[in-house]
Each structure stands twice: as structure tokens, then as C-alpha cells.
Amino acid sequence: MFSGKKEVIFAENAPKAIGPYSLAIRSGSLIFVSGTLGMDPETGELEAGGIEEQTRKSLENLSNILVAARSSLDRVVKTTVFLQDMKEFPQMNAVYAEFFQKDPPARSTVEVAALPRGAAVEIEAVATVMEG
Description:
Low-confidence stretches: none
Number of domains: 1
Largest sheet: 6 strands, mixed
CATH architecture: 2-Layer Sandwich
Strand order of the largest sheet: 1-2-3-6-4-5
Shape: globular
Distance between the termini: 16 Å
CATH class: Alpha Beta
Number of helices: 2
């Protein structure tokens, strides 16, 4: 039964929110993770190198947030990937496939005019909470 409560998730090893939003919200058995950029949690700077490095760091940050919320990448049911340039889809997709090798989640990928801090990619997710 859904109680209507929500819990704000904090993750020590993920970049802090850069605006008035939570990194993630747990509500019932679901976790809604805000878009994660390929930022270094220590410096707040985007990963150098380009789309592959930013995609990898974005998914590492997403994983760290999920762990803090009692979940994991294997429990992700849906992602949305925002790309600054759809021509970089193959490179992003190759790195993404490394993180979701078995039973990948549903996914939408869209090109956007711009992303915060000039990022090449941003990834948001919905996942389920681990039992117990």
C-alpha cells in the first residue's frame, strides 16, 4: 500500500545538486533519480575527454546514488538519456552497454539544445528498492 511519503536521498560519493532539487527521491518501492552529469564528486568539474568519459562518470554517479538509496543499477527499470549531440549516440551507447549488460532497462534517448555546465550527456533513472 502506498503511504504517499517521500524520502530525500543523499549520497556522499556523488556530486551535490546544482540547483533546488534532490539527487533522488524514494517513494514507496520506487527511487526517482534526477539527471546525473559526468561530474567528479570531489571537484564538481565535468570529466575531461568527451562523451565516453562523461557517460561513464554519469553512470558511476547514478550507481552511487542508487546504492545510497538501497538499490543498484540492476534494479533500474527506466532511464532517460539526454544528449547534447545525437551524433555521439554510438559512443554513449557503447559505454552505457558496459553498465547494463544483462536485462537492460527501458530507455529513451533525446537530443537537447544544451545541458547544465555544458555537459555532453545527462542520465536520469527510475529504479526499485531492494527488499529488506
